[in-house]
Amino acid sequence: MGFLAAIGLIAAFLIIALIAIVSSLIIICPPNRVAVISGRTRTLSDGRTVGYRILKGGRTIRIPLIEKVSWMDLNTIPLEVSVTNAYSKGTIPLNVQGIANVKVSSVEGVLENAAERFLNVPNAHIGQIAKETLEANLRGVLATLSPEEVNEDRLLFSQKLIDEADDDIKTLGLQLDVMKIQNVTDDNLYLESVGRRLTAEVVKEARVAEANRQSESEQAEARARQLAQIATVQADKNIVEERNMLRVRTAELDAIARAKEEQASVAGDIARATAEQELEQQRIELERRRLEADVVTPAKANLEAKQLTAQAEAAKIIEDGKAQVEVFRLLTDQYQAAGDDGQRIFVLNMLPELVDKIVSTVNSVKIDRVAVVDSGNGAGGGIPGFVAQLPGAVVSLTEQIEAATGVDILQSMRDTVVDPNDDSDSELPPPPPAPPAD
Fold this sequence. Notes:
- This protein is of the alpha+beta class.
- Among the domains are: 2-70, no CATH class; 75-188, Band 7 domain (Tetrahydropterin Synthase, Chain A), CATH 3.30.479.30; 339-363 and 388-438, no CATH class.
- It has helices at 2-25, 111-118, 123-142, 147-152, 154-172, 190-338, 340-360, 382-405, 409-415, and strands at 26-29, 33-43, 49-55, 58-61, 68-73, 77-87, 93-104, 174-185.
- A hairpin with a 5-residue loop joins strand 6 and strand 7 (93-104).
- Helix 3 (123-142) packs across helix 5, helix 6 (190-338) crosses helix 7 (340-360) and helix 7 (340-360) packs across helix 9.
- Residues 423-429 and 434-438 have low confidence and may be disordered.
């Protein structure tokens, strides 16, 4: 029984020891502190290689015997910043007092600077370094501002100081939360003199302003009286103008009324003339229609009847001509089909008409009597000579026809003499019809 109790005590002791060991290895970082675990190398975001890692809040486990944990506080460090006999713009010495709040920055990249400079350093020492840095920056900012600017616009002064010290503070790994200027004085009473001068200027401006206000009040009262009188005169003037305008308007209305009456009278005359003109137009239209019914329409009907009659006669002539053309075409085809015999037949058929035409040339010649004179040789050759001239005249006439038409009538007559023993030409085609009379 005692042995089991001893084993239980040993087990409990081991468990407690294990818990203690694990607790010593687990690092839990609160939000107002930073754990710097050194012992192993790591690469920062900017490419640098360092032998530590930083934990901002949360938890982690350190490797025993290899890593060591150090702590840095992120609490605010209040500072009183003051400079004496710091020359401002214009070489005027000033005394400036202010307050500032700084802390170790938790921004990545700046926190590493603080870890490298202030690890295991008390906050008082950190505050002293920050104070000296801010006072140096304060002197630099004062050199760019006049005493009036420093004293009148302290917010601008504080902002310039923060901008000037920001880079130096970040280089140290710190962060400037607040920087306020409390008091600005000088040993030469420059600011007091400036204040008295400004006070005098303010008093003078107040007196001038009061006098100006009094003068403006009197001027305003005079302007008011003047405006009242002007308004009265203007009102009277407006009344007179309105009366004149009323008389002018009355005359205009009278003139317009008279003009309207004249226009109405003229419009009546125009209406009557227009009505008479329309009535005359209707009369002309009636006369035009009567003439058209009595003269134009019968004339048109007569013209159309004559046109139809002429078209009928023309159609008959055209059809007769087409029939004659068709007859001549058929005869021509028959004569062409007959060859040389067809030409002789054609000349033979035309011979009576040719002879008739030849004889007709002397129809109008009437011989009352013929006197034959003998030659006196006793041979009695007068009459036979006259008779012998007739065949010569006929021959001469046929030669003239041949010269004009190219047809040798005598030769054609010789060629077309019909042999009484030849029956080949016993059937002759009928003579061509006479051409239509013109």
